[in-house]
Amino acid sequence: xxxxxxxxxxxxxxxxxxxxxxxxxALGWRYxxxxxLYRITALYARNRRTAWDNxxxxxxxxxxxxxxxxxxxxxxxxxxxxxxxxxxxxGMGASRVAALPAVRTALLQRQHAFLTEQGLVADGRDxxxxxxxxxxxxxxxxxxxxVRAERRAKQIGVPLAGAGFERILADIEARDEADRNRTVAxxxxxxxxxxxxxxxxxxxESVKKVLDWYREK
Length: 217
Prior knowledge:
Number of helices: 9
Distance between the termini: 14 Å
Helix content: 40-55%
Number of strands: 8
Structural class: alpha/beta
Radius of gyration: 17 Å
Shape: globular
Mean pLDDT: 92
C-alpha cells in the first residue's frame, strides 16, 4: 500500500528543506529533515572527538543521539545547534558519516518514527529509495551547481564572487560527487520520481508543482 508520504530527494543546497516544509504546511502534514539527523550526528561525533570514518563509534553515537526538534529549533544535548549544523564543514561531515552503513541503519528507525496518519513530507537523499520506498509521491529536486552555490552564499551572507563563493561552489560539487558515488544509498533519481529543476523557478512555483503532482494521484 502507498505510504502517506511525499519523498523529496536531491543534492546539497537544492532547496529541499524549504520546499518540503512549505508543502507540509500547505497539506497540514509533518515534516522530516533527514539531512539534519546526519548533520547532527557529524556534529556530535566532532564534539565527542570521534573520527567521522570510525563507523562503529559513530553508529553508537547515532543510536543514542540526544536530539530534540522543538518549535523549529534543533537541540543537541539541550543546546540549540540549528546554526552550527548548517556550516559547510558539518555538511561535508554529514556526507561522510552518511556513507557508513551502520550509521544509516542506526538512523533508519528514527526516520520511520516520524510517519503518522497525519501524513509526512520527508526530504533527503534516499527518502524515496530506502527510507520510504512506498511513498505516494516521489520528487527529485535539483538545480545547477552555480545556482545552488548562489543560494547558499545568500543564505550565509557571502558575496557572489570571490574566494568565499568559489569555496562554496567547490564544496557543493565535492559533496555531489561523494553522494552520487557512495556504495550505500547513493543519491539517484528513481524512474518513478518526478524531476523538478528549480534553477529558474521561485519557491512558490516549486511548491505549486509538487502540490499539483500530489493532487493528481
